[in-house]
Amino acid sequence: MKRNILLFLFTLIVLFSSCRKSSPNFSDNKEEISLLRNIEKPIEVHIDLNNDCLPFDSLMNKVNYVKLETTGDNLIGEISQLLFVDDKIIIVDAGQSKTITVYNEKGHYLYKIGAFGQGPMEYGALNHVAFTPGKEMLVITDLKSGRLKYYSIDGRYVKSVKLPYWFSRCEFITDNLIAGFSLAGNVISERNKKYKPLLIVTDLWGNISCSNFQSYYKKEFTSSILEPLRKFEDRVLYNNPNTDSIFLLTPNGIELAYHLNIKGAKPIVQNEDITNKLLDEQHQNNPFFYGDFIELKDGAIFYIYELGLKWYRFGIYSNTKQRTFSCNGLLQNPFFYFFTLESKARYKDNTVVVDMRPDIILAYRDELYRLGKKEEIDEFYKEAVRLTDYHVAPLCAPTRGAIFTGRRPLRNGVWATCW
């Protein structure tokens, strides 16, 4: 039985940077509805990747893991989103199985939410999944139908609402007020069609309360980040792609929440002349924030990307100590090996979660035995599939498909290699 694995990392942020007001450079192209404000104390996060660095074991407390049960009804290809409500784990696979599956806290499969299709109660795409305030319902942003699809937490279809604008991501600020993101932007004023904001805060009927951040999307510039909009508890946060500022979105406007200062990093310049090539040139030998962060109850964790480095550097900011510590990559607990990639979600107060495919878990087996205690590693792999008698297909893709699904190539649909 193949199982994806969720690893829960408990952070020690009671240890840990400073907070002062910041003056970010906002878009020069504003409309009257662009309500940018400064809150009293936006947090200035200073990240030094060469000093004040600690090993994983000093920054983190412990690691727990949950093995997700896999049956013929809930195959997972790749986890796009991880959501938590009450004692349930919700897994979104937007790309491969196109399913939303629900598990209990021990990883046992419970049921699916909705179904992929073209019917009135089905969804055509899982562009993004969000909770309504209070986590009473789950809402799918479905660009195929141009609608928001509402489902109860127990999986029942509730209603469908037309998207007020072309959004690929939506998060709920209130029951009727959403923040929406579109990489190409949306034209919101006939008087100024050149102004296409990436971010719009609007009610469900299309009445805009605020917008900002000009889109430079074109054939030569398509760069973005996976999750510019994120919600932690009742706080909706937005990172403008390829910038070092994170904003809090409220019914009253857009407020600066965090500004990152990465020592030695040069700011990324974006304007009408930007292209993918120019952006790549700015990333060379230049550590940069790529939009991956998790806000915790007592602080936040920010991931820094460096080209050529095989793992994600990160800094942990503490509200209590008002100081940021970076990770130097050293570790004693072998399970920290799985946290060299960015975390996917927050669980409860101060825990971050990463998902790991079974084939990666198997690939790391020798390394875990080298670093850890044999009895702990044996327990971790106790329910793993043991390949004692197996056969391969003449081509690589059908063999991989058979290993991933447990089905022969003619049954799983991967029967050839595309060149």
Short description, anyone?
Helix content is 11%, strand content 37%. With 419 residues, it is mainly β.
Notable features of this structure?
419 residues, mainly beta, 5-stranded mixed β-sheet, 11% helix
Q: Could you explain the architecture of this structure?
A:
The radius of gyration is 22 Å and the shape is globular. It has 419 residues and is mainly beta. The chain contains seven helices and 26 strands.
**Which parts are unreliable, with pLDDT below 50 for 5 consecutive residues or more?**
13-34
Helix content: 10-25%
Name the beta content range.
35-45%
Strand tally: 26
Structural class: mainly beta
Describe the strand arrangement of the main beta sheet, using strand numbers.
2-20-19-18-17
Choose one word for the global shape.
globular
Count of individual helical segments: 7
How would a textbook summarize the main sheet? 5 strands, mixed
What is the CA-CA span between the terminal residues?
Answer: 31 Å
Mean residue pLDDT: 86
Radius of gyration: 22 Å
Task: Present the secondary structure layout.
Layout: E1 5-11, E2 36-47, E3 53-54, H1 56-59, E4 60-67, E5 81-85, E6 88-93, E7 99-104, E8 109-112, E9 128-131, E10 137-142, E11 147-152, E12 157-162, E13 169-172, E14 177-181, E15 197-203, E16 208-214, E17 229-232, E18 235-239, E19 245-250, E20 253-262, H2 276-283, E21 288-295, E22 299-305, E23 313-318, E24 323-327, E25 345-347, E26 351-356, H3 358-363, H4 365-371, H5 374-380, H6 396-405, H7 409-412
Parallel strand pairs: 2-20, 3-24
Antiparallel strand pairs: 1-4, 1-26, 5-6, 6-7, 7-8, 9-10, 10-11, 11-12, 13-14, 14-15, 15-16, 17-18, 18-19, 19-20, 21-22, 22-23, 23-24, 25-26
